[in-house]
Backbone:
């Protein structure tokens, strides 16, 4: 894992537009944080985003970095949380753990209320996690091949839950539908545990969710995995086929988790948060917890997250345009 950037790289970050430089910025991190730090999550409690956000807040607090706490702000596909942090003071006291929808929503909604390439200071690309298509034990499809056969023969018969319109799970399925012509009804939720509760109750046929949100239910036999979105089979689910091997060679749509601050946050504060978050990700017990929950730990410098944002925006813009996706 790459380590924190340190002071020698701060000027380069500011010059690259990843962090705004300000008069007197070299001293602006002294005493940080002077007050409790809020980490805003774009989802309801429960699920992978909530897990990694709370692990980060708890570990930073335990390590004496200050008082860090999580605030869940679900709604509008994540836009409520993204707008809140983008409009917050750039003092490092309001942070954001964002997912793919940060780069999706400006192309999906008429007015997302922020520009992902300019509204935030990237801090750390903390982790990735695959999505998995799961069904209940009495579901209509016993395999991903059978699921796809039904979705092609009987369009929109299958009801598939997602954690929000424009979420990673939604886009994972949208890529499949766009490329194969299969069709199912998309049932959006506001994250949290509700999609899984409805799935286990048989109210929906399947769900496209992050592995972290469902790994415990898979291990307990309460839901059945049909396919995973990594290009190769995933170590935690070695018997579950990939979308790529069954129907779409080269398919790879993971979910990512990035730590952001508002644009204009002083470079030393961003560097300090990057160093601290990398240290958290390097802790053996944290790594074990996240790996067992299905995460692939990434970490590294802020530029890695900044580059991902810039690459993702046009990718999803093109898919949304070509597939004709609109909020339902």
Residues:
């Amino acid at each position: 894992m790459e380590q924190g950037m340190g002071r020698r790289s701060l000027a380069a970050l500011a010059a690259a537009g990843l962090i705004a430089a300000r008069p007197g910025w070299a001293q602006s991190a002294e005493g940080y944080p002077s007050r409790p730090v809020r980490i805003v999550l774009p989802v309801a409690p429960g699920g992978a985003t909530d897990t990694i956000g709370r692990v980060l807040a708890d570990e930073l607090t335990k390590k004496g970095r200050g008082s860090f706490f999580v605030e869940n702000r679900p709604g509008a596909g994540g836009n409520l949380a993204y707008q809140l942090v983008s409009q917050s003071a750039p003092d490092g006291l309001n942070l954001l753990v964002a997912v793919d929808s940060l780069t999706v929503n400006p192309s999906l909604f008429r007015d997302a209320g922020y520009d992902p390439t300019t509204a935030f200071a990237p801090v750390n690309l903390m982790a990735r996690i695959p999505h998995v298509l799961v069904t209940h034990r009495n579901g209509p499809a016993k395999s991903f091949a059978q699921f796809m056969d039904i979705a092609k023969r009987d369009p929109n018969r299958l009801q598939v839950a997602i954690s929000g319109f424009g979420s990673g799970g939604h886009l994972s399925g949208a890529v499949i539908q766009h490329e194969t012509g299969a069709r199912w009804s998309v049932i959006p939720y506001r994250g949290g545990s509700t999609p899984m509760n409805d799935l286990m109750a048989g109210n929906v046929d399947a769900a496209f969710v992050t592995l972290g949100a469902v790994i415990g239910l898979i291990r307990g036999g309460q839901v059945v995995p049909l396919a995973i979105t990594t290009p190769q089979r995933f170590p935690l689910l070695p018997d579950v086929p990939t979308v790529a091997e069954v129907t779409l060679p080269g398919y790879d749509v993971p979910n990512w988790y990035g730590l952001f601050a508002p644009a204009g946050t002083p470079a030393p504060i961003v560097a300090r948060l990057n160093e601290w978050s990398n240290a958290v990700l390097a802790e053996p017990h944290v790594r074990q917890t996240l790996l067992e929950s299905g995460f692939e730990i990434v970490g590294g410098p802020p530029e890695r997250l900044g580059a991902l944002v810039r690459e993702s925006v046009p990718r999803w813009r093109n898919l949304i345009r070509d597939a004709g996706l609109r909020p339902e």
